[in-house]
Design brief:
2 copies of one chain form a homodimer.
Chain A: E1 4-12, E2 14-15, E3 21-28, E4 33-37, E5 54-57, H1 60-63, E6 69-73, H2 79-82, H3 85-88, E7 96-98, H4 100-112, E8 120-122, E9 129-132, E10 135-141, E11 150-156, E12 159-163, H5 181-188, E13 192-198, H6 214-223, E14 229-232, H7 238-250, E15 254-258, H8 260-271, E16 295-299, H9 309-314, E17 328-331, H10 340-353, E18 356-358, H11 373-383, E19 385-391, E20 393-394, H12 395-407, E21 419-422, E22 429-433, E23 438-442, E24 445-448, H13 453-463, E25 465-473, E26 476-477, E27 482-486, H14 498-512, H15 515-519, H16 521-540, E28 545-553
Parallel strand pairs in A: 2-20, 4-6, 6-7, 7-8, 12-13, 13-19, 14-16, 14-17, 15-16, 17-18, 25-28
Antiparallel strand pairs in A: 1-3, 1-21, 3-4, 5-23, 9-10, 10-11, 11-12, 21-22, 23-24, 25-26, 25-27
Helix pairs in contact in A: 6-7, 14-16
Chain lengths: ~550, ~550
Amino acid sequence: MTESRLIYLPLGGAGEIGMNAYVYGVGPEDDERLILVDLGVTFPDMETTPGVDLILPDIDWLAARADRLEAIFITHAHEDHVGAVAHLWSRLKAPVYARAFTAHLARMKMEEAGLDQEVVKTVSAWPETVEAGPFRVGFAPVSHSIPESAGLVIDTPHGRVVHTGDFKLDLTPGVGEPFDEAMWAEIARDGVQALICDSTNVFSEHPGRSESELGPRIEELVAGAPGLVAATTFASNIARLKTLAEAGQRAGRSVVLLGRAMRRMVTAAQDTGIVTDFPKVVPAEEAADIPRQNLMLLTSGSQGERRAATAQLSRGKYLGFELKEGDLFLFSSKTIPGNETSVLRIVNAFSAMGVDVVDDSSGAYHVSGHANRPDLARVHRLLTPKMLIPMHGEHRHLRAHVKLGDEAGIPGAVAPNGTMLDLTGAAPRVVEHIEAGRTYLDGAMQIGAFDGIVRDRIRMALNGHAMVTLILEEDELLGDPWCEIMGLPEKTRNGAPLVDALEAYLSDFLYRADRKTLRDDGKLDDAMRRIVRKAAFDEIGKKPEVTVVISRLT
Amino acid sequence: MTESRLIYLPLGGAGEIGMNAYVYGVGPEDDERLILVDLGVTFPDMETTPGVDLILPDIDWLAARADRLEAIFITHAHEDHVGAVAHLWSRLKAPVYARAFTAHLARMKMEEAGLDQEVVKTVSAWPETVEAGPFRVGFAPVSHSIPESAGLVIDTPHGRVVHTGDFKLDLTPGVGEPFDEAMWAEIARDGVQALICDSTNVFSEHPGRSESELGPRIEELVAGAPGLVAATTFASNIARLKTLAEAGQRAGRSVVLLGRAMRRMVTAAQDTGIVTDFPKVVPAEEAADIPRQNLMLLTSGSQGERRAATAQLSRGKYLGFELKEGDLFLFSSKTIPGNETSVLRIVNAFSAMGVDVVDDSSGAYHVSGHANRPDLARVHRLLTPKMLIPMHGEHRHLRAHVKLGDEAGIPGAVAPNGTMLDLTGAAPRVVEHIEAGRTYLDGAMQIGAFDGIVRDRIRMALNGHAMVTLILEEDELLGDPWCEIMGLPEKTRNGAPLVDALEAYLSDFLYRADRKTLRDDGKLDDAMRRIVRKAAFDEIGKKPEVTVVISRLT
């Protein structure tokens, strides 16, 4: 038996922003006891994953070793950290630990999936710890853009690991605990073997700003608005929602929460005692008679999600509300790359209604929830870890973060998903590469990224689809071949129906085909597919996907 | 007959960035003589226009009045101003006027489309003018991000109109004419009836910066790079390409142009005498033996286009070149909204190769080609037009630009595509709304945006496609119904093949169906479609698109 070692293996979140899932192990090679930190999702897009509902980490490696998995720890309740728990738990079957607010939301997910809520255990903040095999894990409060975020203090026989989760250094975060430098200094006092650290904002050069900066500015904006005011932010950003609602309240406006996600988050925060002084909220049904200059709507869908309240309002009346000339809409949020066109569509629709739109470009109405470059450097100095492993970031973020550590003399490694590191020594060492990828939640099914299903959807979207039906009795044609098209022009460049043109080419081929060909489904299929693609290219300049159905009557 | 009037009608470019096409008319109502300014394209995306090659303005209104069209004027050679000329010219058949560089590229497009190049006429810069019916039009040089951009001075019986085209105020543009305040003051001396003005940068609060600022910074960056240097920008930005090439040359590097678009643009600039001192360029084939620290590659594809040189290099070897650790890649460009994910994919691929990527975020390596807010205000003051019509911008840009004009006491109008304005009086007046939309170039065909073709592609991409074949003789089934699927999971949640499950549901229905139903194709089709959608939803949680083929043997 080999010596015990401490390993780190990201299955998601390293080499991307989203879908966090990090494995730690302690024990002899290939026999480590394991824990998992976070189990999040990422979101599909039309370009690469049309029709997919959610993207989950591929946990095949871990599921095959589920008997060695001691526990799952969730740092905070953002979807990219907790969103896959209910979808993948049945393959892992380990207890799930989190702080109260996160645990509350994780239980709701388990319940909705028909799973046992009891597997989710609530843990108090550091210095409370949970023992999980050779690990002892504590949830040290950090500030972020959702309540009760935690950095994990992971004690192992090979030393202490700090896994930051998502965090920022905020002394006045509004809701939740401020950055506690003394606590972290104390945690690091006896040495940190490895710091596994959030990287998303490593390219932001200035120190991060506090949530508390926004209050006065938002108040001023709302106080000066003549008409209805609506504002959006992430539904889970309770501190921001409170800031916005207070601004409304102080301007004498009734606050309405529009959007299920938003109401659910505020309720969860109240139920778990995170906020006890959230301004009074008026149900949408009761707001009909309130004059528009006395209203403040908080709407879900800051990323332009089509079915959320913000997008609905941009398309017209929603739950009795309708924006118009003189109203104000505030995006108290940043637009995540990839969502720009959806958000701009909404901004332009509001513009066409005469609504004044204010966004985060001035910096006055939004602050990030992540530590910027100087903040990261400060944390490196504070914890003085023996080694630094950047996580949660695209490759460019991980690489820049390693360089930042290098400047402070801390050895590091760029470890994208699937890279297993040995953290036992003086510096990280790559010991193995695991197949780590993505699984798609597609309707009720989980499908593999390489199953070809999504590839076929993309091909149909790009090329259209032609279907050919042929009926044979022995080697005799019964009638003519029949074409149907979907996603293709009806007419050819000569103005003739495309299906007629394709059928003519096919008939021409079939009437010349010899008996051997007519008896061979494979050959017929191949030939007819080729003919349709070539004919369509000649007639309309496109090569469609082709499905051939050969029916043989017997 | 009614009195003569001066009208303005945007068919593209107003309410969007891209696809510029603006009609002006002079004459009695419904009998105006017309000119068209610009005829550009915009680019498709997977989200809204999968499979489409290019998006063209819908010119039905103008084509129906082609006998009244005197001429087409092209302000500059960007694709969103000239790109649709060859695709739509046959429906308009009017002479096309442009300055030499633009005309050169327009002729190449006409030639490639098998059209007569002779219809494209070269015009010298202002004060030369072209007479076109009641219009007299001159090309007044403006600075932009492509050579020989022009603002049009359009004299009519109802006064002078200035149509800026895309422009910035650059006193040292590197290639082409600097901003000539005296010339514009002279043009405006006797009064400007209407200013039709570029709006894309109205939200940029600071005065625009000059192209000449970049040279020293790029030189410094290139001089300090230890390995190979590659840089990308828009292929048509000849000034930038020259700045980049000169930086390479001064650092003792051989300059290689990678990408057809880039070579074509540089050649066009040389052929038309725009640049006579472009640094010497080495063909890719002859660069094999040059040490990498002596190379400077200029690559096409700054927007992440999959098949362009930049993307090819990010995927590995391209034309003998391969980037590696210690090399530098410069994006001397901004990323257009919607292209972020494609560009970031490339940045991360370079990061994984160990290449240092530098982008425009510092402001040191890119300047915009459009006039910013203070520049627009300056032009308003300089030309003191009677009225201001913002063009080339999304709705939010047009609206903000009208407000900016208001502040200077100039009446304006937000006129999105299809809004016909009468410019004859003291202020713009909306007189009509025209059906203005988009046409898709799809392979060899032009299809309408509302033909349902693209909608069907999107549906197949989101929902997958199931095909059902059924053979009947009179009202007797011949064999069982047959299912094929594309873009759907092979197995159901019970692990059974999906097609088997669907066929079982269909058979069940068919064996119970009465003769009347079996004789009615419409009823059968409807019922089977409904059954497949419901069954698939039960089995895999998705409702696919369904095509039913019923064959009746007679």
